[in-house]
Specification:
The chain is built from 19 helices and 6 strands. The protein is mainly alpha-helical. Helix 8 links the parallel strand 3 and strand 4. The chain is elongated and about 100 Å long. 39% of the residues are buried. The chain binds arginine. The site of arginine has 11 residues, from helix 6.
Length: 455
């Protein structure tokens, strides 16, 4: 039976009923809905808007309904449209007229706004835990790879030697920012919209602060119209999800490259790889590829809600019912992706020798060779030119810079001395970095100490 049937003289078309219903997806909010209703019923009782006995009976019955839902004993109906009216219908079936008093001084518009915020607050806490595990895993891996030398890239061309620990700590910083983006978003959404009514507030002596306290919000929203029309909090959540996925996706792209025979830097564990149905030799990095692919899906979720909200006049419009599937999907996808990713990197095999081998070739010590000449008094631009010529010469001979004889070096500049060989040894290039936050072993050690303090 429809809770709003009074004004209607005709039954709804059954396809329209189905099209209109959100119970298929918003039943996920059953717990938040019941929690919100319990707080509301308590508030109504305390304020004398309904009797103390009615309030108690509603609270008790809602608790029973919650247990029954969790025990799988409740069947929701499309007729009752959404989670809010399904719960109210069940309540009224159980306690008759008393149940019908629950919806005094509220609307589904503030109800859905509070449910959705409560849901996201929990989801953000869960995502925070997933990110914590990832941050720990990155720190552990970095700790173990402080001495693992590898090429650092720009334009995916070998650029300067770095350590794997340094590379991993770069990602640590990104995921740390992601975590703080989620908590910023949580902080702004932590205001209770319940008690806003349909759009204009209510005529009852409600106590919104009590509702906020009961539901664990740090305060109440300031404007009822905004409270029911606002979905910024969900957009911020989706943005934070998208940025996190983007970071995972960049890392996955690297792992996919690194696990190829061409790179040979890592081997992803068998338990996180798949085979080919036709090519017996194949071992594919499907998990990493899927995370990269799911990033597109989460961007889609974000784009969906931005598009849904962009032309909406104030206050509530039914378009807003479409906010839930993308938000649920993004939250689920982010959690799954972070978890799989964390396990995948903690089980992968790092081919230190191959990384180090790659770091030795590609003239990555050319900048250090130029810096050597700067120390001998030549202006940097000229040093750049001299080393450029040396590299060209070496490419022609198929050798590394450090393979040149002293005589050959002298042919390019008489400032070269025996100490050039030490100055451009790969590990020394790393060691020589002095700026704060650099790849030097010393700096990475400091970065790791800071990270451990944070964790
Ligand atoms: N199922 C609705 C939603 O998710 C609840 C709010 C309905 N409000 C209304 N005025 N029809 O948006």
């Amino acid at each position: 039976m429809k809770l709003w049937k009074g004004r209607f003289s005709k039954e709804a078309n059954s396809s329209a009923d189905e099209f209109n219903a959100s119970i298929g997806f918003d039943q996920r909010l059953y717990k938040q809905d019941i929690t919100g209703s319990i707080a509301h019923a308590r508030m109504l009782g305390r304020q004398g808007i309904i009797s103390k006995e009615d309030s108690d009976l509603i609270v008790k019955t809602l608790g029973e309904i919650l247990e029954d839902i969790e025990a799988g004993k409740v069947e929701f109906s499309i007729e009752a449209e959404d989670i809010h009216m399904n719960i109210e219908t069940i309540l009224t079936q159980r306690i008759g007229d008393v149940g019908k008093r629950l919806h005094t001084a509220r609307s589904r518009n503030d109800q859905v706004a509070v449910d959705f915020r409560l849901y996201l607050k929990d989801d953000i806490a869960e995502i925070g835990e997933c990110l914590d595990k990832l941050l720990h895993t990155l720190a552990d891996l970095a700790e173990k790879n402080q001495d693992t030398v590898m090429p650092g890239y720009t334009h995916l061309q070998r650029a300067q030697p770095v350590t794997l620990a340094y590379h991993l700590l770069a990602y640590y910083q990104m995921f740390k920012r992601d975590k703080s983006r989620f908590s910023d978003c949580l902080d702004r959404m932590d205001l209770c919209p319940l008690g806003s009514g349909a759009l204009a507030g209510t005529t009852y002596e409600t106590d919104r602060q009590f509702l906020a306290d009961e539901l664990g919000f740090k305060g109440v929203t300031a404007n009822a119209m905004d409270s029911v029309a606002d979905r910024d909090f969900a957009l911020e959540f989706l943005s934070a999800c998208s940025i996190t996925m983007m970071h995972l996706s960049r890392f996955c792209e690297e792992l996919i490259n690194w696990s190829s025979v061409e790179f040979g830097f890592i081997e992803i564990d068998d338990s996180f790889s798949t085979g080919s149905s036709i090519m017996p030799q194949k071992k594919n990095p499907d998990m990493a590829e899927l995370i990269r692919g799911k990033t597109g899906r989460v961007y889609g979720d974000m784009t969906a809600l931005f598009t849904i909200t962009k032309g909406l006049p104030l206050a509530y419009n039914k378009d807003l019912q479409e906010d839930k599937p993308p938000v649920f999907d993004a939250g689920d996808t982010v959690k799954d992706s972070i978890n799989i990713f964390t396990e995948m990197i903690s089980t992968m095999d790092v081919r230190k020798e191959n990384m180090e081998h790659a770091a030795k070739y590609g003239y990555m010590n050319a900048t250090d060779a130029a810096d050597y000449l700067v120390q001998k008094g030549i202006p940097f631009r000229d040093c750049h030119e001299i080393i450029g010529k040396i590299v060209l010469y070496c490419i022609g001979k198929g050798i590394a810079i450090e393979d040149l004889t002293m005589e050959e070096f002298k042919g390019f500049s008489d400032k070269f001395d025996e100490d050039i060989y030490d100055a451009i040894a790969i590990r020394n290039c790393i060691k020589a970095k002095k700026s704060e936050g650099s790849t030097s072993f010393e700096s990475v050690k400091k970065q790791l100490e800071q990270v451990k303090k944070e964790l």
